[in-house]
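Q: Here's a chain of 105 amino acids. Please give me its 3D structure as tokens.
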Amino acid sequence: MDIQLKRGLIEVCVLAAMLREPTYGYKLIKDVSPYMEISESTLYPILKRLEGASCLSVSSAEHNGRLRKYYSITDEGRARISEFLTDWQGIMKIYSYIEKEAYNG
């Protein structure tokens, strides 16, 4: 898969994993992994980028005596998901055309 496409998909998956509630790094990896391969070395730069783009906010809370960072989606993050879903409809039209031509052409 193209690296830029994969990066964009992972970013939207990470944002989607925050839709129901704030979450933390390990849980994000666990939630996204059934759909896309993701590691800590991939996740944390993405979280920094999304924070820089105001798509998520970060807070800290104590958990079992340790400070844990929690990530929450922002309105900008929700807008990014909506934009992705709109764009994806156009991508699926192109995919359908390519698939039709490849198998019927």
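Q: Can you summarize the key feature?
A: The first helix runs from residue 3 to 16.
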